[in-house]
Write a structure and sequence with these properties.
Arc Repressor Mutant, subunit A; alpha+beta; 206 residues
Length: 206
């Protein structure tokens, strides 16, 4: 739930009007099941004396109607009218409007205004006939948010802390030194070779 939803309604920023089909999101059955499961979690009571959580049972019914009754899994399009949703969810048209607002505040869906343009014949003040385009709002286009995508972007399944205790440090071991090359032509080299040979002979004798 965003900070804006905690403010009184008259202090909340007004929703920007967006027109068109939006960005439809295809969803398979698993994605729809995740959304419904997340919605049921949000329906649980979070405050003492309150019978529901972020969304109500009616809002859950509206979400279920949208997901399983009207959403096209392949194209992602979903644009039923309030009346059609109310009939499917078994509630009043006014309840649908409140439920969609609550579902959007909870981050479960978003929507855009869908419009059609109709060209009609008209007459101006001088009696001349012409045509004009009238814009009519038809319904909303709904887009649903899969909680799996939100979790994968915001959280990691790996631990944020390295294994081991907090005082352990990973110290790289120094590389083994390369064997010393002895030059037998020098006095020091010849002496070292004789010493090395004597040590090896003594070791073999014991």
């Amino acid at each position: 739930m965003s900070f804006a939803t905690t403010l009184p309604r008259h202090l909340r920023p007004r929703r920007e009007k967006v027109f068109g089909d939006g960005r439809p999101r295809p969803l398979d059955r698993n994605a729809k099941a995740r959304i419904m499961t997340f919605a049921r979690v949000l329906m649980r009571r979070t405050e003492k004396g309150k019978a529901y959580g972020a969304i109500t049972a009616k809002a859950l019914a509206v979400l279920e109607a949208l997901l399983w009754g009207f959403h096209n899994a392949r194209s992602g399009l979903c644009f039923p009218s309030y009346g059609t949703i109310a009939e499917r969810a078994g509630c009043a048209r006014s309840t649908v409007a409140e439920a969609i607002k609550a579902l959007e505040d909870a981050g479960l869906l978003t929507w855009v205004n869908r419009i059609v343009r109709i060209r009609e014949r008209c007459q101006d003040l001088f009696g001349h006939f012409g045509s004009r385009v009238r814009v009519i709002r038809t319904s909303n286009g709904y887009r649903f948010n899969d909680p799996k995508g939100a979790v994968s972007k915001g959280f990691s399944s790996k631990s944020d802390f390295p294994s081991g205790t907090s005082i352990q440090e990973s110290i790289p071991l120094p590389a083994a030194p390369a064997p010393l090359e002895i030059d037998p032509t020098t006095d020091l080299g010849a002496t070292l070779l004789r010493l090395q040979s004597a040590i090896r002979s003594k070791a073999e004798a014991t």
